[in-house]
Amino acid sequence: MDALNQTRVIEFAFLGLTENWVLEILFFVAFSITYVLTLLGNTLIIVTIVFTPRLHTPMYFFLSNLSFIDICHSSVTVPKMLEGLLLERKTISFDNCIAQLFFLHLFACAEIFLLTIMAYDRYGAICAPLHYPNVMNIRVCVQLVFALWLGAAVHSLVQTVLTIRLPYCGPNIIDSYFCDVPPVIKLACTDTYLTGMLIVSNSGTISLTCFLALVTSYTVILVSLRKQSAEGRRKALSTCSAHFMVVGFFFGPCIFLYTRADTSFSMDKVVSVFYTVVTPLLNPLIYTLRNEEVKSAIKHLRQKQVFS
């Protein structure tokens, strides 16, 4: 045990996305623009919802929370990745690596739970419209958001504790551009099979269970739309298709990355980029481009700002 403590890893080094400096510069420019647009797009949605009284409904309350989570989620990994693209030696201290890992899982799990809650919200609004105002009021919405953050914190703590309890005495090269549980535990100087299975069962169960709940909710919604009017069908399909696009973009990479034990594929980095960089930008684009109420509210706020 003393030997392990004496040789304990104090920092990790990332291999990054590529060793080609031209590609690194191109990636830096592209991901910098993507990150700025992510911050601006999600902030715009939050501000629009906060300052538009008619958008003070459960659906848009959850949407503003989704935008907040997307800002936090991308900010956990993208700034460090951008720094690494400019540096020859891409390192992170052990403590900062664990912190990055914790917050990555906190925000990712919070988004999974929130997307599930949003599906339940749409199910209530479309399939039980008479009971919806009583079932989904602002008090219930706040309680659900509190519960999802609590659940996400518990999940993230479990993942973090399972990771830091392992001894790390070298090597310290992470084949990625950020700290995540699977690539980090591979560096432990002990057998990690049981830990890996516990981690996969934790993340995998949450991802698959919530995804199946989402698919079930949207299936029931689609079946129930046969009883709706043509206008009601069009509006419901527009909203639900936007939600389901976000679900597909987020859950696909999650299930791909976190339902495997000690295996890795060459596509892992590409999937990780999509999951940490691209998806947080797609959410505001999907919800603004496909949602007439949000577009109308943004236009109204812009006019008020111009003429005030």
CATH class call = Mainly Alpha
Can you write the helix and strand succession as a string?
HEHHEHHHEHHHHH
CATH superfamily name?
Rhodopsin 7-helix transmembrane proteins
Largest sheet: 3 strands, mixed
Radius of gyration: 21 Å
The pLDDT mean sits at 85
Global morphology: globular
The domain tally reads 1
Multimeric state = single chain
First-residue to last-residue Cα separation: 68 Å
Characterise this structure:
With about 300 residues, the chain is mainly alpha-helical. It has one domain (about 1-305): Rhodopsin 7-helix transmembrane proteins (Rhopdopsin 7-helix transmembrane proteins, Up-down Bundle). Helix content is about 75%, strand content about 5%. The chain has a three-stranded mixed sheet. α4 (about 95-125) packs antiparallel against α9 (about 230-260). It starts with a helix and ends with a helix. The model is unreliable at about 1-5 (pLDDT under 50).
Features:
single chain, 308 residues, mainly alpha, Rhopdopsin 7-helix transmembrane proteins, three-stranded mixed beta sheet, 11 helices, globular, disordered N terminus
Give a nutshell description of this structure.
InterPro entries: GPCR_Rhodpsn, GPCR_Rhodpsn_7TM, Olfact_rcpt, Olfactory_Receptors. The chain is 76% helix and 3% strand. The chain has 308 residues and is mostly helical.
List the helices and strands and how they pair.
Blueprint: H1 2-6, E1 11-14, H2 21-50, H3 58-86, E2 91-93, H4 94-127, H5 132-135, H6 138-164, E3 173-174, H7 181-185, H8 193-224, H9 230-258, H10 268-289, H11 292-307
Parallel strand pairs: 1-3
Antiparallel strand pairs: 1-2
